[in-house]
Amino acid sequence: MSARGGDGGAGQQRLPGVSPPAPAWAGEERWARAAWSRLAEPGDAVAAALREALGPVAALDVVLGGAVDGPQLPGEAGTPRARAALRAALERWRPRVEGLDPRRDADALARLGGRVVVPGDEEWPRRLDDLGDACPPCLWVRGAGALGPLVERSVALVGSRASSAYGEHVAAELAAGLAERGVAVVSGGAFGIDAAAHRAALAVGGVTVAVLACGVDRAYPVAHEALLSRIAAEHVVVAEQPPGAAPTRWRFLERNRLIAAASSAVVVVEAAWRSGALSTATRAAALLRPLGAVPGPVTSSTSAGCHRVLRELQATCVTDASEVLELVDAASGSVVPVPVERARSGRRRPLEGLEGDDLRVADALPVRRGAPVASVARAAGLAERTVLACLGRLSLSGHAEEVGADERGGLWRRGAPGPSAPAR
Amino acid sequence: MSARGGDGGAGQQRLPGVSPPAPAWAGEERWARAAWSRLAEPGDAVAAALREALGPVAALDVVLGGAVDGPQLPGEAGTPRARAALRAALERWRPRVEGLDPRRDADALARLGGRVVVPGDEEWPRRLDDLGDACPPCLWVRGAGALGPLVERSVALVGSRASSAYGEHVAAELAAGLAERGVAVVSGGAFGIDAAAHRAALAVGGVTVAVLACGVDRAYPVAHEALLSRIAAEHVVVAEQPPGAAPTRWRFLERNRLIAAASSAVVVVEAAWRSGALSTATRAAALLRPLGAVPGPVTSSTSAGCHRVLRELQATCVTDASEVLELVDAASGSVVPVPVERARSGRRRPLEGLEGDDLRVADALPVRRGAPVASVARAAGLAERTVLACLGRLSLSGHAEEVGADERGGLWRRGAPGPSAPAR
Lengths: 424, 424
Prior knowledge:
Two copies of one chain form a homodimer.
Chain A: H1 29-39, H2 45-54, H3 56-65, H4 80-93, H5 102-110, E1 114-117, E2 139-142, H6 147-151, E3 154-159, H7 165-180, E4 184-187, H8 193-203, E5 208-211, H9 225-234, E6 236-239, H10 249-262, E7 265-270, H11 276-286, E8 291-293, H12 304-312, E9 316-317, H13 321-332, H14 356-364, E10 371-372, H15 373-380, H16 384-397, E11 400-404, E12 411-414
Helix pairs in contact in A: 2-3, 7-8, 7-13, 10-11, 14-15, 14-16, 15-16
């Protein structure tokens, strides 16, 4: 099929060193997509444009055939500037054509419980389509779970590798709380916050998904071999890189867009001023994904990135799993988040829950000796009959206590309301 | 003047126990306003409406004369419902008419360096007009400074009395940083965050203003007598309550609206889930004052109120004085706040500051032994000539190092860039 287009009048130009004919697998979209995942780095705009213009199979033909001037390049791809870009791109893809065999890659991965997932597959996470041109041509998935359904309701918990005990504690609390509520915890499998989140989700029997910057057959970091194997065995490990691919800094940055795109919401748990987690947050903001950040002490450099995300990306401040859940539900539209008046302390303060005239009368009551109603009215700035009505209510609730009698309405002092239902 | 309106056809109704004629001072607006500050509690809507309808002097006449049905009540104030409300209000103001003498109060306060400040005075803080109906009739001011000019550029730092060492540290840092930049620090003179803020402002020779819930001649809390005396001696202590007035819970809550209204911006430094500081924050939000909150550990109950303000009132996360200053400047329109890329760590990481192809090539370089350009190109997914161009730049910046020769472009490995100017 690389022989197609050889009849063009524009004069075929063939790059040296590329050997047609193309292998049989190159004609199937699944394998063509898989081949692209090895040929081009994530973020390669020319690769994306070529696949968009021709489809993955015909686009791969161009690479395997080395033809840049054939009539198979439609529309804008046929302009001189586009041809120049394509020529440069072919030059950078070429070193990776030799030995290209995605079917062999897939066979090897199958022995580890792996597979290639492409758009249209039931397992394809539909949210990835939000990436547009930056959508990966395929995903390499390893694990017992089905990726798409697993991340349907999910939260990415991301953060620094050099985490503090505080950050790891919060990551574990959030991950456990979310996993217990049936929300999948997505993270990057790294040291620090990522590992704390994955482990806590596993510990409560919840679902967790690791998105790697290298091939899913590799353990990176090596110290997480057992953790990643367990996630693959029970849930899912996923990457856009083909098996065997090394984790480079560039791939880490681009991997972060997958984490942001695949999840219902993204939460930065702990991050220094410069942290990879901030790139995930930036991607999430660009995708309009609900974005949260966990605050920490302003005196701690390990939280400076979170505060930056709160300030610069207008992230929502989240402090526990239920607040993260509000983010997720706001995204899915299933629940309108309402600021809820929650009672965090069981102990009730003397004037708590009172308002208006009742508060003013309770305010005006002496704590020890009783005072006549006239004096309470003067102190509260209220009419005596109003004060009497308030005292009636306040004595019922225990906020006021009648401790003696005088000619007009008794002597009153502050009462001590017992522990009761939370105010409001 | 309380004899006015006696010719009405509606039949004057006089409440018993009120003795005309009114004293001479009642005819002057300044003293009428001062009298109102003792008669009615803050938030008394009838008092505000009556003053609005008649002006403070004639409104006071109504109280001193006890007439509710005279022709001096214009418009809506003349409706039956309004008359009933006024009758009830007169009943609650009455207990405070006896002994009313704001001139005597002012004379006593003058011996402490005090005075009454009313709208129109140069010292009146114009921002208070934003309170509308809730604006106090006057302010009782004590101190060497002129209130209005002092708070022209000011930040209210508020928070819990039961503060932590963390909260006090941050309050002091912010107050000192703001005071050093010529911004007045406004607070409530209370234990905890308030005191830490006042003291730090004083310590750096800055301006600080205490807004009290009691008379400015009183020290509340008593333990802050020296602190409040010093603030009065060097700057300003202010209250809407007349001299001698006691601090009640109600007055604390209403005092908070003055703190919010008088300041250019409000920052909640540390606050528990239920804290008086949250009422200040709510008032600030209602007044559209720029509102900030300092985050803290989510595991600390003393910061829960700050996180609540960040979530529920969409406050801005602030972590240092310069970020608070952005709030102030945004309010005054003097500077458009721009997220500034600041380098917080002097130590530069190996790949920091690199992007695009340079990052990908640096990524692809081996750390120890040198690699040929062809192998780097393959790893980076870039054309060899692109890699050569990148290596040129990277060797200049120290990110790449040529360690040997081969037939095509040399052998390259990762370099170690020295400490340098902050990236970007």
